[in-house]
Amino acid sequence: MKIASPWKRLQGNHFWRAVDREHNRIIIEQLAGCTHILDLGCGYGSLTAALQQAGFQAVGVDADAEQIAQARALFPEAANALFPMDAARLEFPDQRFDAIVLRDTLHHLWEEADTEQAFSEIERILRPGGRLVIFDPNPNFVVRTARRLIAHQDAECTFQQARTWLEQRDWKIQRQFFTELFALPLSGGYVGLELVPAWPALYPPLIAANRILSSALSRWGLGPHLLWRYVLTAVRQTSFGASRTT
Fold first, then answer.
1. Quick check: pTM over 0.90?
2. What are phi and psi of 109, to 5 degrees?
3. pLDDT single digits (tens) 72-97
4. Which CATH superfamily is domain 6-236 in?
């Protein structure tokens, strides 16, 4: 099966488009009560557009200027809220946002950027009591095996590494769970083979089954071993400029 260009998978009848919407839905559920949202590492812009459509005042930034250009073309309704920007130098005033989302971004900050500086910026622009939502690959045996099969390499930040890092920086974990059993791998994501035919009528039952089974496995404690994504929601316990305990 032919691998479509990554950004094209957010168009037409690709199954990834339905999976992407489901991931956005999961993230948006974590943002109740927030208004001003930063989508940090927004990629092709689908989450920023979904946030705006859901009524949030959302801004999306990404270090890759080419992806921002593609995002603006894909989601012209959100084009004025999409900007090229480095996570280590966020051009926003202090305490600008109620919440910051790292959707499939943390592992890149963890291995490919100055993590300390990026989080210092996150903490600077987040309001006191602001929320951080992390939705990131869960690099367990299943995910690593699948990556080897398609010869795909990616940075990694495990659930435990993410949790420990946040706790050391005085973040309080509000919610944690795992999700995504089979819809993502069947869709191919941005880099793999698409294993579901372009039959839109098939997508809702697949998404529903994936949601139910993923939720059950996460509740039963099997998420770390079987599911492809983890979700962490945290609140900063000390405001910007306050001393941090170690």
1. yes
2. -65, -35
3. 999 999 999 999 999 999 999 999 99
4. Vaccinia Virus protein VP39 (3.40.50.150)
